[in-house]
Design goal:
With 251 residues, the protein is an alpha/beta fold. 42% of the residues lie in helices and 15% in strands. It has helices spanning 17-28, 40-50, 64-77, 101-126, 150-173, 190-195, 218-229; strands spanning 8-12, 32-37, 54-58, 83-86, 132-137, 177-184, 240-243. Helix 1 packs parallel to helix 2 (40-50) and helix 3 (64-77) packs parallel to helix 4 (101-126).
Length: 251
Amino acid sequence: MGRLDGKIALVTGGGSGLGKADCVQMAAEGAFVYVTDIDEPAARAVADAIGANAAALRHDVASEADWQAVYARIVDDHGRLDILVNNAGIVVVADPEETTLDQFEKVMRVMCTGVFLGCKLGLPLLAKSASGSIINMSSTASHIGYPPFFAYSAAKGAVRSMSKSIAVHCQDKGYKVRCNTLHPSSIETPMVQGAEGRTGEVHEIPGGVLPAGATGSPSDVANLVVYLASDEARFLTGGEYIIDNGLTIRP
């Protein structure tokens, strides 16, 4: 407890899935968390469950105006930001030939443009932190071929590349801000449930070491988010952390 005491955090897509787990665990470690989501009632439910250490905001990450409004609120409330978790995402199940231009552009707006805007507009605020951390959610889809998730893979590849440039940029500018990416495989979230055709059907994830091919728990990702957000990870920037139970190393 207390690993993030006094830190101010923003988590996009915080109303469900990985974002919800990130918000809950960071708040439990002492951070004040802004839970943002295009689904405002979902964000509010998470913030209400957390209590005094959270606030909910409606947030379309593809909108520059929404990003400006969110950051203006944080400036008014706290004057700085210590942790930015770009988590919001969507998935379209379609291979390279089936994917429409509208589908491709929508996915890129959320997970590529959204991350760009979050980092670009957030850096002046993060630069005021004594120890800032940007954590961008990518995927194992940026490392291996997933034809059925073509647009998703493209967006996550862009996140992977942008994050390395942001990490170097922060060092070159003298900002005390680190930037890393997380690359989960299948995690038990509403997005994965929908992609697997079992919307609303939740699978219980057992404890202990899991067998090959198993689906992970949101807490498996949130645990690493807390670490990367903390000062314990001060020497880690520009890294990509695969959370996949060995998926990408298997032949």
